Amino acid sequence: MSAPAGEAPSSGYASIFVEEDLSTAEVDRLEAVHRPLADSVRELVDATIRTTVDDEEVAAVRAEVDALVARLRARQIEGAAGVRYNAEGRTWSWGNAVVGERNALAPPLDVVRDPDGLVHADTLLGAAYEGPPGMVHGGVGALLLDHVMGVTASARKRVTFTGTLTMRYVRSTPLGPVRLESRIDREEGRKVFVVATLADPDGVTVEAEGVFIVPRWAA
Ligand SMILES: CCCCCCCCCC(=O)SCCNC(=O)CCNC(=O)[C@H](O)C(C)(C)COP(=O)(O)OP(=O)(O)OC[C@H]1O[C@@H](n2cnc3c(N)ncnc32)[C@H](O)[C@@H]1OP(=O)(O)O
Q1: What one-character-per-residue DSSP string does the chain give?
Q2: Which CATH class is domain 11-218?
Q3: Where in the chain are the domains?
Q4: pLDDT tens, 38-67?
């Protein structure tokens, strides 16, 4: 997401775009330190779902996890991570639900912009993303599509917000490798129309259309 081009309203948006006095090198260094922690916590989530160890072992692990949480909380920020940027134009959103470098709930997704305008991302959805048995939760598919489509609409040059998102679930998406593809269909004033798909290795499972709006305050 680019730094906001205009004045945000006082409804709370202003607090999510925060300029930080951090060099890009320092942001990169911090990400390199924290990303492996999120990876380990992601493993913890998967192991928590799938473990079959006995009751005593579950209780012992819980005590250790609680102790680790207390160590991390010894020093922390107020509230959520927000979207931050520096004077060099580097932005970071460490808590983002889809791509947050520090967020173990994020799959995570590495979103790539191809030169021809296609935006794509590949990821692996495991046990933590289940809805129907063995299948990806419909809301998770919508979450990932919303993010990739928002990146597409923003196209590095503007802030857009999801206005309307429509999903057609063509068939169930099995847990495992998935690919997202997205592109801008057309633009009308502040409205950016985006089309996208979620696919498993056998083909498209979800088709999406979205209207993304450049808010009045950022136009
Ligand atoms: C590079 C990094 C990128 C990061 C990607 C992150 C992806 C994540 C995406 C999200 O999750 S965003 C969070 C979910 N979305 C929201 O919270 C949006 C909440 N709604 C709003 O903030 C405002 O309602 C909104 C910015 C969408 C519109 O407010 P405006 O005051 O700017 O709209 P306005 O009323 O001036 O309408 C402008 C045009 O948009 C149309 N419009 C407004 N709201 C709409 C809507 N909800 N759906 C479709 N069209 C809409 C409206 O009819 C009009 O069309 P016309 O120009 O043809 O007259």
Answers
A1: -PPPSSPPPTTTGGGGEEE----HHHHHHHHHHHHHHHHHHHHHHHHHHH----HHHHHHHHHHHHHHHHHHTTS--SS---EEE-TTS-EE-TT-TTT-TT-TTS-----EE-TTS-EEEEEEE-GGGBSSTTBB-HHHHHHHHHHHHHHHHHTTTS--EEEEEEEEE-S--BSEEEEEEEEEEEEETTEEEEEEEEEETTEEEEEEEEEEE--GGG-
A2: alpha beta
A3: 11-218
A4: 999 999 999 999 999 999 999 999 999 999
